[in-house]
Amino acid sequence: MDIKQLEYFLAVANARSFSRASELIPISQPALSRQIRLLEEELGGALFERHRHGVTVTETGAALAESAKNIVQQIRSVTERAKSLATEPNGALAFAIPPSLRRLLTTKLTAQFHTQYPNVLLSIFEGPTFATREMVAKEQVELAVISTIDSGRDLQLDPLITEKLYLVGPVDASLNEKRSISVARLAAVPLIATPTQNSLRQIVDNALQSERLASDVRIETTTVDMMLQLIADGVGYTVLPYCAVAEAVKTKQVRVAPIRGMSISWAVAARADRPLSTAAKVFKSLLWETAESQVAKGHWKVEAFHHYKA
């Protein structure tokens, strides 16, 4: 006895006709009759009484019908639930991202994902990309946005955005968002920088070294908000991507100028040897939608946006 035989039996019982049931299922009438006959042989009794204008269930058939309805309904319910779990996000998802992306991407992405998929427990970790890269490698998070300078052979990287780097100074600094400056300008100001292992610091140091210049770093921190506050207080300057300074520029807390030849590229990282969970796949797709929306609205000024290919 299997689920199909029970479904065939119920179809005949409801239609009170083998011919009508065979049209509704659909299945050929000989095949339908054969399946019912096999079921009757297994149960050891007739399930239907044949009449000139159709069939009616026997006492055995009536007893089976009552149980068969519940069995079929339960199996269908389990099947639908299994399909739902395979296509709808569930469970937990851990994600890591640099703090510089918080205002333009992270908060909006998190809020939208939670609204659409409230049953997923979303854990967000902020940190420099050298740390978040290791979190992916050690399976502490399933996805992370990292700088491509921190790529590795064990990771699957999907390029997201490339954006210019800006020198960020106090409001009285002679910086203009529409006028680029040379790398040499970085060596002439006191810097508030990220630690040396950070990808942004490496980009800055490499650019200065290529010009045979050295930076004048006075303070090191990974906290973007602290950097911006110190700059607003006139303590020094820093180098940040536009995503980190967009709001501060809009509210005139700081002034910025793009640095010629300096940019940073972001990519979404996952382990190359692990398939993504359903929640991660949906989150990744939504991440691209959110980023693309911010670029399209002009909130995120980028050099290149890479469309996601699932």
Describe this structure as you would to a colleague.
The protein is built from 10 helices and 11 strands. With 310 residues, the protein is of the alpha/beta class. It has 2 domains: 3-87, Winged helix-like DNA-binding domain superfamily/Winged helix DNA-binding domain (Arc Repressor Mutant, subunit A, Orthogonal Bundle), CATH 1.10.10.10; 92-305, D-Maltodextrin-Binding Protein, domain 2, CATH 3.40.190.290. A hairpin with a 2-residue loop joins strand 1 (48-51) and strand 2. It starts with a helix and ends in a 5-residue tail after the last strand.
Q: What value does the Rg take, in angstroms?
A: 32 Å
Distance between the termini: 42 Å
Q: Can you count the helices? A: 10
Task: Briefly note the structural class of the backbone.
Answer: alpha/beta
Uncertain regions spanning at least 5 consecutive residues: none
Q: What is the CATH fold-level name of the largest domain? A: D-Maltodextrin-Binding Protein, domain 2
| Main beta-sheet strand count, sense and barrel state | 7 strands, mixed
Order of helices and strands: HHHEEHEHEHEEEHEHEHEHE
Mean pLDDT: 91
Binned strand content: 15-25%
Can you count the beta strands?
11
